[in-house]
Amino acid sequence: MKHIRNFCVIAHIDHGKSTLSDRLLETTKSVSDRDLKEQTLDSMDLERERGITIKSHAIQMKYQHTDGVEYTFNLIDTPGHVDFSYEVSRSIAACEGALLLVDATQGIQAQTISNLYLAIEHDLEIIPVLNKVDMDTAIIEEVSDQVIDLIGCPKEDIILASGKTGLGVENILAAIVDRIPAPSGDPEAPLQALVFDSIFNPFRGVIAYVRVMNGRLKKGEEIRFVNTGNVYAADEIGVMQLENIPTKTLEAGNVGYVITGIKVSKEIKVGDTITHEERRCDKAIQGFEDVKPMVFAGIFPLDNDDFEDLRDSLEKLQLNDASLIFEPETSAALGFGFRCGFLGMLHLEIIQERLSREFNQDVITTVPNVSYIAYTKKGDKLNVRNPADLPDPTVMDYVEEPYINAQIITKPEYIGAIMNLCMEKRGILIKQIYLTTTRVELQFDLPLAEIVFDFYDRLKSISRGYASFDYQMDDYRKSDLVKLDIKLNGENVDALSALVHREKAEAFGRKICKRLKELLPRQQFAIAIQAAIGAKIIARETISALRKDVTAKCYGGDISRKRKLLEKQKAGKKKMRQFGKVEVPQRAFLDVLKLD
Ligand code: GDP
Ligand code: MG
């Protein structure tokens, strides 16, 4: 145990976590050059393309220190997006130390700070690293000062590094041994292992990633998951190098994997504690919570015949993404589909993209909303996850909506614009703190619904990229909510219905109508687009009629070209949905929300 070091890397997206992690693997010869594809740790294709780490992974390295001893390092990777913050906190709980990686050209961002606080709460030893110091635009002095202000370390503790050139990598490896404490824990005590992540493997089923806190797990033993109460046999255990290496035991202090033959990832909960069925530990490792989806939307197949295929695909996705939830729903406009719950908008987009890429399923996503709580006059309490579920005004007493605590870090010159944005989003300013003379932290209470759609993008553009954002869930507060309907030629398109604050309803309705006018192709008849609250029309746009004959420009003659054009038009139609006579392109359902 003396020669083990467990650590993670805390960094804002793009500050170079993946690049530096690869450099650590390379320097410790944990991967052969042949295997060192760029960004080894991001194993899902989608992650690589988007440059984000969705699921956390862990990898073991062996490091020969100058003291002549070989150390075992377990690097636990963490996702870097607010949608996935629960997974960050579990990864942190599995470590004794953290590299705090800060881009020397950018400085500290809100995401970094909240993850850093999590790490400090868990008593992790923090090794500050300024990355990308090879760049001309690096402002090393200023960023060093920020780091010193934040964690109160002496300046000499900060390691200057570049994942690109390899500068500082040896120093980082040595600091991991010298500064991060070896794990403590009693190998003779009852088994207590933290599940900090799990993945689904199509051949092996669910693989749980664990950090053994106390005790010793042997292959084949009967184990109990404390929070779910499930009992299984540990069919295979081992450590994670580039491949999983089976071992006979896993002891206190170490990080490894457990395969139990579980076939559905829902049955393993990240944050759960594993113990022996025979000799149980007295308590679970604290901090376990069920991850709650925050954003809900309907997902419908383009073609109603694909409903069962869609169910099948969602079930497969759920096997390795336990945070995805879904239940069947019907829409008058779209037929049979599913109401799905997501951690956030990024999660929604990822699921939609995976459906299309991995399962060849093109879907229509309805206007997303958060989950509200409605109280009826009779005193019933209802969860409202779908605009259709909002009780009629005659039976409803009041509604509550979820609020978040948000932290925004920016330069002083952008305070005004950010205040305006947050006020427009019904935010309440809680605090304004100068971190240094050139960086200020603003704290707001904001309705979750207001940040779900276009908040990030607008924040980025008004601050020219110099603002970072992070949030935690707070509580539910009373809200004046209405259901806004969209009609095409008088027909309600329930997939476009939205729950909005009354003050925002008119502006929102106008924008949606305008946007639909741009997004809907002109057809042979005029189309009236209307927004309504109940029977009251609050906005209207009209698309004028068009005679469309795609073959007209072919000047008669060329039959094969004519046929091609017709085929193309037919293929285009496949991505359309019909409402009465009106055709709506699939893309319109998502694009309609990109309002600004
Ligand atoms: P992550 O999002 O934190 O995992 O960041 P990545 O490792 O994907 O890096 C983000 C971008 O910064 C990529 O384009 C990298 O090539 C670049 N990058 C990472 N580290 C360095 C560095 O030390 N110097 C320079 N110049 N570029 C870097
Ligand atoms: Mg990365």
Automatic annotation (TrEMBL):
Q: One GO term of the cellular component aspect?
A: plasma membrane
Quote the SUPFAM superfamilies the UniProt record gives.
Answer: EF-G C-terminal domain-like, P-loop containing nucleoside triphosphate hydrolases, Translation proteins
**Protein residues bound to GTP:** D14, H15, G16, K17, S18, T19, N131, K132, V133, D134
Q: Name one GO molecular function term.
A: ribosome binding
Q: Could you say which EC number(s) this protein's record lists? A: 3.6.5.n1
Provide the catalytic activity annotation: GTP + H2O = GDP + phosphate + H(+)
Q: How does the UniProt record describe the way this protein sits in the membrane?
A: Peripheral membrane protein
- Recorded family membership: Belongs to the TRAFAC class translation factor GTPase superfamily. Classic translation factor GTPase family. LepA subfamily. Belongs to the GTP-binding elongation factor family. LepA subfamily.
The name under which this protein is listed is Elongation factor 4
